[in-house]
Amino acid sequence: MLKNKKRLICTAILGVICISLYFDKKQSSTEIVIMGGKHIKEFCVENDKEVDNQEEYYSLERFFRPSSSKIINDRIEKSLYEMYGNKPNEVKIDDNMLKTPEDTIINYFSVLREAANPLYNTNTGCGTIGDAKGPYPVAYNFLTDGYRKKMDYNKYVKSFENKLHINLVKLNKAPGDKNNPNDIKYFVEIEVIEGSKENKGLFAYYYGYIHLEKLGDTYKIKDMVYNDENYLCAPYHGWSYDAKSFLEIEYGEWCSLIDSDIKIEEDGYEKKAYFKDKNNNEYYVLFYQLTNGVDLKIADYKKDKNGVWKVIYIEPEKCLDKNKVKN
Angle 188-191-193 (CA atoms, 0-180°, nearest 5)? Predict the structure, then answer.
């Protein structure tokens, strides 16, 4: 535990203002693909800031601990196993595997859980790892026709290079993007065992979003984006990774939106940060705490005149840009 009022010094050269991520929907020939989805980089801004964190319970230990979460992708479906080894065009996923968005995602990652695509120069494991490449043709058919046209099968399999075991540890429905508010979108966090040139496996964590399309009475995956989790940025440069500090600086100082105390309510890894503006309008910002301890902004909400919470889209980085122009 840290003592009250102990200061975290933030250089914030690596400070992340893109914890609410903007995902580029355009494909390009040079695009990096990982585990069947686009790999994105966080946009960073220079903004030196000292933070006085007064919460008694606050501890940097949260940033160093690996996941102890129960895995979600633990379904066993023998009919899928029987298709392992088939060519992608020979696979037909039963509609029962695709009944809801959650079914689609959980069954997809249940297939991928034991898949492994080791590199020739890594020594992790002994002998064949899991089901080797057998699951990939099956997993590939959880994608829409449109997604498969953008990413052929060979590119899809290559995106799993050095991924030897995959656990789905978080799954939550999320609001659609600003430009596609009605999109079917889910937040995911996955735990991956990756190979190394030494005789050991390494744990890595990724988070991102999966977008789905409704096709009749079924759902298939139409897009995926993933971001790496960094374990040594938040403990040493931490204001933008903590929900309360994030709001105080970006929503308070940058946007002058907050005119009240910030109240944090926690439920497991979910955090809701409530505040009011100068006109007494009520807001809350939804965060999920990642395995690396980072509080990731998911969505903004504002209470309407009927007392109903509605999704809105607040972009603090635009406030910072305006302030730079003024100065």
Answer: 150
